[in-house]
Design goal:
This protein has about 280 residues and is α/β, with parallel strands linked by helices. The chain is built from ten helices and twelve strands. The protein is globular and about 50 Å long.
Length: about 280
């Protein structure tokens, strides 16, 4: 690793030497995109990602696909500074949110994680906390004050496609909801703090087909409101929900990297690399 600086256990290139992002937002919408540039990552000296560059367009869904162990989830955590929370984790490269370097020494990790929200593989609502308080909890954790919390909670639940199902029992524990409802509650909680980007790490892998369909519908409804990056092992899901796609791969004893990226239809219908064709058509992985 050369020309790097270390901050909070994370190694980054000097932002002054790198041009600013050209993918900022869609005119008139205020939606911000993400731009990863030559990102490499290590855990305790073991390299797990090799020079990953990917533009995640504002107001679109980008799917990250590839076999287990190729670095997709690590890359996702890098996008909101969760990678650096792991002891021994290091990073090189640059990640821009709009035109802001999220790893700049002046950037506050808590603020970055508010602006780039995360929905995990397993739903993680606060089980004893009410549905209402689950949604509002992000405000308290982020130190955000709003004039009308009731309206914000309702709006967030509506955006997550959950309001009609829970409007009469907002004081019931969030842990009493079904798995699919809990996942949408987590989406509502993330949306309550007005993120620019929503990251989703296999959000449907633990859900039944009906709940999966509802989450996918929610993603479709949110697409023009927030930039979404989703990790999925389901090729059909990637085709259904995403406009763009990136195929990650790691050969034996080598770090993960992007083989090919571009419009989802292109990757599935006419990929450039034969390894992409083999993976999306189920010949390995």
């Amino acid at each position: 690793m050369t020309d790097t600086t270390t901050m909070t256990g994370t190694t980054m290139t000097d932002p002054a030497t790198t041009p600013r992002n050209t993918v900022t937002d869609i005119a008139g919408t205020g939606l911000a995109g993400l731009d990863a540039r030559n990102v490499s990552a290590w855990f305790s000296g073991h390299k797990v990602l090799e020079r990953v560059s990917l533009q995640m367009e504002p107001g679109k869904v980008t799917a990250l696909i590839g076999p287990s162990g190729c670095g997709k989830s690590t890359f996702l955590r890098i996008l909101n500074r969760m990678h650096e929370m792991v002891k021994g984790a290091q990073l090189a490269g640059q990640v821009l949110l709009g035109d802001e370097d999220i790893y700049h020494p002046g950037a506050r990790p808590a603020e970055i994680r508010r602006r780039v929200g995360m929905v995990f593989q397993k739903p993680n609502p606060f089980p004893a906390m009410s549905i209402y308080d689950n949604v509002a909890s992000g405000l308290k954790l982020s130190g955000i004050k709003v004039a009308d919390t009731d309206t914000l909670v309702e709006t967030s639940l509506r955006r997550a496609g959950l309001w009609r199902e829970v409007q009469s029992r907002l004081k019931s524990p969030g842990g009493a909801l079904s798995g699919g409802q809990q996942q949408r509650l987590c989406i509502a909680r993330a949306l309550a703090v007005s993120p620019d980007v929503l990251l989703m790490d296999e959000p449907c892998s633990a859900l039944d087909p009906t709940s999966t369909r509802r989450i996918e519908e929610t993603i479709g409804e949110l697409e023009d409101q927030v930039t979404i990056v989703i990790v999925t092992h389901n090729m059909q899901q990637a085709q259904r929900v995403s406009g763009n796609c990136a195929f990650f791969l790691a050969a034996e004893n080598t770090p993960g990297s992007i083989v090919e990226s571009g419009p989802t239809r292109q990757l599935f219908d006419s990929p450039v690399d034969p390894r992409t064709a083999d993976y999306v058509h189920g010949r390995f992985g």
